[in-house]
mRNA (2'-O-methyladenosine-N(6)-)-methyltransferase
Amino acid sequence: MSNDSQGSVKGEAAMTLSPSGSASSQDELVQAGWSKCWSKRENRPYYFNRFTNQSLWEVPVLGQHDVISDPLGLNAAPAEGGDNNLGNGQRKRRVSEEQGAGPNSFKRSKVEPTTPISPSTPGVKPWSSAPEEKQSQSTTIYWDLDIQTNAVIRERPPANHLPPHPEIELQRAQLVTKLRQHYHELCYQREGIDPPRESFNRWLLERKVIDKGHDPLLPSDCDPVISPSMFREVMNDIPIRLSRIKYKEEARKLLFKYAEAAKKMIDSRNASPESRKVVKWNAEDTMSWLRRDHSASKEDYMDRLEHLRQQCGPHVAAVAKDSVEGICSKIYHISAEYSRRLRHAHLSLLQDSPTDITHQSLQPAVSPEQQRLVYCYPVRLALPSPAQPRVELHFENDVACLRFRGEMVKVNRGHFSKLELLYRYSCIDDPRFEKFLSRVWCLLKRYQVMFGSGVNEGTGLQGALPVSVFEALHRQFGVSFECFASPLNCYFKQFCSAFPDIDGFFGSRGPFLSFCPVSGSFEANPPFCEELMDAMVTHFEDLLERSNEPLSFMVFVPEWRDPVTPALSRMEGSRFLRHQLSVPAYEHEYRSGSQHLCKREEMYYKAVHGTAVLFLQNEAGFAKWAPTPERLAELLAAYRTSSSRASSLCSPGPAPPGDSASKTTERTQSVESPGSHDNNNNNNNNSSSSSSSSPQDKMSAV
């Protein structure tokens, strides 16, 4: 129908919505967004809600068809003889009626538009996540938000983070993008290389472990200024990046390129005479050998390359050291300047002076009442949230699209509904969901910026364990909490994550390194960053040392042995280690970090490295959740079930050569089965062979 005919009816909506209803109920229906319209196609009236995009032939009933008393639509039920929960077909028909019968009306109706959301509209949830029939058919649930926590902490005061705002988040996104571009330009201009893949993301991880600055994403107060992670990764790609080799000709070309690049680099830098002599002689000797010997095998070329790296590597690193340190220092200082700009803009937006905020940011002395033990709860902000601007929402098939100032972020319907539930469970300052869409936009934009804009960049940084493994961990070991997760990839509704300022509204308990549980059973699948994993182990041991209550951590880390990572080595030597097992590469999978956007067939990917599973428990935790053979068998069976179920959905990878259980190795330290226990309820094949860091990182939280 035309907009004119619809508008002519709206003025009389309060009088004609319900012939038998009271004037007050009619007013409430109008305030809830209902109006009476005329269908030219059916030649009869219908009722349309401008907030939820819902159309009804029957007169709407307050409390049944509106969302004032049920903001998530959990209690909605079809009216007798009515057709209230209309599917996509009926929504499409209404769109075509409004647009008129034209040749392009069918194509345009594939997008389900909704009215731009205004935060001034009280008391309603102004969208419809998905028709119930469509959701039940196409949405697979990868979480269980009904599980209650057993994590106990000491009561803590509200956090002093500045509340999120789309204007600030948009500025942060632009500045982080500029910082990435600076990093790319510096690497290319100074060293003639592209930045190592994911190295900027790992830099963010490593910096935030020690950062004392105010910005939730950009480092600004770190000591030392030079990042060990960024320095190591850039140096590993000098003079050229060494990728994995499959064929003999590739090995030959790589050997020639390395010799040529090393010689060119030593000639163009301020190197000592001894360094010039060693590098030139080895490079020329290698080129002579390549011209002379054409019958060498792939192994011969790789052995020669390793020998060349050993001879030339130290000299090349010496001449590149100052330049690479300059790159690291420059990026850090630009980041600190951007952080200062953002904070100034944020304080201006909040209309508070820096002195007032600084005064409020001082933590008060904790009284004895605040030291009481309580079950863990989401992060609360001390500062009230400012008024939020308008964020537009519409659905395109199974994808929710949120737009602010022309910047669009997307999330699939299932995860959008998950965010609704997490927000309902966790947020205490917005019972009417007036700020929900703006906070979802900030959340999605923050993680989008953190991942990066490259093809598949960041998809391995947020990988999660399979659902069947989480179920086994909860069933057998009482696990109810994730130490490293996000609102997008969490399985439980209680978790730690990177960004307490925005994630707290969706259930986050804050960064794990600042989280101090007294008791509980936890799963830890940390970002694969060496510095963060090392800090994690230090935190584990400190918590286990201080608590006499049952405390248990089930840790999942990559089994890197060449060389072994400090974190893995420390856990294997820890006095709190009760058991350790290893799941071989290609015989298990992770859920994709882009699970909130990817297709169903891309949800899982095979792990290209083995995963070490370690059980760190104090005495009380060991007595309650001991890794007995029966429980371990259930955990391994969950891995097998997950692998077989997802084999048709995983990213391509070699088929397992046999039963994964037969190849799973275990190591036990001082395991003594008690008589009875409480049974409480990255796929990157182009990694650098020269890097001591993993080619796959998974960022869930800092």
